[in-house]
Specification:
The protein is of the alpha/beta class. Helices cover 46% and strands 18% of the residues. It is built from 15 helices and 20 strands. The strands form five sheets. Strands 11-6-4-2-1-14 form a six-stranded parallel sheet, with helices on both faces. A hairpin with a 2-residue loop joins strand 17 and strand 18. Helix 10 packs parallel to helix 14. The longest helix is centred in the C-terminal third of the chain and has 27 residues, at 352-378.
């Protein structure tokens, strides 16, 4: 009996141990501009993956770049990590551009999928006030920023054993490589067609990597459970507000709400939401806002609203749409200002298809619904006392200041008139007082009766 208890206890312990020993690999996705929210997400994910005993943290990456300050903190967290960090540029069409290139080469293992590219990391500048502009190479500030970035990138390559010569050219000459060439030039380690290929085939065959502790470890992820880590709600909101397309949509929605409130005063809700959206789009992002572009968008919306009230045969509409398009494309391009810090992102303009779709939608809503609202406001009221004004009838008795009767609107009415109207004459209702109507020989607005 005692032996059976010992055997059962042993089996229970072994089963529990097997559950605890089940291999895991944690995965996160970074899609969009590298921002403080991205940095927080990466740091928290590294800690969680380590505490869960993960084989590695895989970062699925697709970014046009981002803030250098956030990028440096992400890279530092990679260098200090006590678990392997894998950056996987995925899916096809994705890129590790500018800051994304620096994040990729700083990982213990960098992998790309077919149809992706890496590079183009020449710095541009952003001010502490959020203003952005590409600076000429001969500018002393640009030279300092570029040299500093080159030195930093080469030091990363020395630690990870990557091609420092190419990394320097990526910064100074904005060079970019497709996946196959990136492997050939030892910028990244391998190509994987998808996440399953990466976890079960590529990573298990990668050479052991050195961790911050000085230990060397193999990445044994074959048949490992994939645990996906999601951003928290605050991180999602902070990350989204730094997406140029999101800011653009938020701003146009704000203008649309204000335009609806302007055309139909008293609704309150569209106006409040519209103003809130515009303020959030202007104040919340870390990205630059070009106020010349913002002004053009404002003018464009104003011209479309004016078209509703003024007959311009389409001139105001065409001008409004043109102002919206040019303002949209200029929304993130600012002139140079002093006290600048590097910003690693090549293009902040909203996507062309998005600009076209949003501009057409905004114009349609303002013109179609605005015209309908104005038509309703200007149309004759068809119900109540106001709806009776102007209706015609027939005097069934003589009508004068003392009274009389008429037949109108399928009913008999007590009537009064400032003039003497004989029985049988056609009359028009000019006013209503309770159940008594005031009538005249002529319709309202036609002048005094003879």
């Amino acid at each position: 009996m005692r032996k059976l208890i010992v055997i059962a206890a042993f089996l229970v312990i072994m089963a529990a141990s097997q559950v605890g020993w089940a291999k895991k690999v944690h995965v996160i996705e970074i899609d969009g501009v590298i921002s403080p929210a991205t940095k927080d997400f990466v740091e928290e994910s590294i800690q969680k993956a380590r505490s869960d005993g993960s084989e590695a943290l895989i970062i699925q990456l697709d970014t046009p770049g981002g803030l250098l300050s956030s990028t440096k903190e992400i890279v530092q967290s990679f260098l200090d990590s006590q678990i392997p960090i894998v950056v996987y540029v995925y899916p096809a069409g994705a890129s590790a551009t500018s800051a994304g290139m620096m994040i990729a080469i700083a990982a213990h293992v960098a992998v790309m999928s077919p149809g992706t590219n890496i590079g183009a990391a020449h710095p541009v500048m952003i001010s502490s006030e959020g203003e952005y502009k590409s600076i000429p190479k001969e500018d002393i500030m640009m030279e300092k920023a570029t040299n500093d970035t080159v030195g930093w990138v080469k030091s990363i390559c020395d630690v990870r054993g990557r091609n420092a010569e190419w990394a320097e050219k990526a910064v100074t000459e904005s060079q970019s490589l497709p996946a196959k060439e990136a492997v050939e030039q030892k910028v990244v380690d391998a190509i994987a067609k998808d996440m399953d290929d990466l976890v079960n085939n590529v990573l298990p065959g990668i050479k052991p990597v050195a961790l911050q502790t000085g230990d060397t470890t193999s990445i044994d992820t074959k048949d490992a459970e994939i645990v996906k880590i999601e951003m928290t709600i605050p991180q999602i909101l902070q990350h989204a507000i730094n997406n140029p397309n999101f800011i653009y949509i938020l701003m146009l929605v704000g203008f649309l709400g204000v335009a609806i409130e302007f055309k139909s005063p008293g609704l309150i809700f569209p106006g409040v939401i519209g103003v809130a959206c515009i303020l959030v789009a202007l104040v919340a992002p870390s990205l630059p806002i070009n106020y010349a572009g913002f002004l053009l968008i404002t003018v464009g919306v104003g011209l479309l609203v004016a078209e509703v009230f003024i007959t311009s045969y389409g001139l105001l509409s065409v001008s409004g749409v043109a102002a919206l398009v040019f303002g949209s494309l200029m929304l993130f391009d600012k002139p140079e200002v002093p006290d600048m810090d590097p910003f690693l992102v090549p293009d902040l303009a909203p996507a062309w298809p998005l600009v076209g779709a949003v501009v057409l939608f905004t114009a349609a809503v303002i013109l179609v619904f605005g015209t309908a609202i104005i038509r309703v406001h200007r149309s004759k009221v068809a119900t109540g006392k106001e709806g009776m004004i102007g209706e015609s009838g027939k005097a069934t008795r003589d009508v004068g200041p003392e009274g009389g009767k008429i037949y109108a609107l399928s009913a008999f009415w007590n009537a009064v008139s400032d003039e003497s109207i004989s029985k049988g004459e056609k009359v028009y209702i000019t006013g209503v007082d309770g159940l008594v109507v005031k009538v005249s020989r002529k319709p309202p607005g036609d002048g005094p009766s003879s």
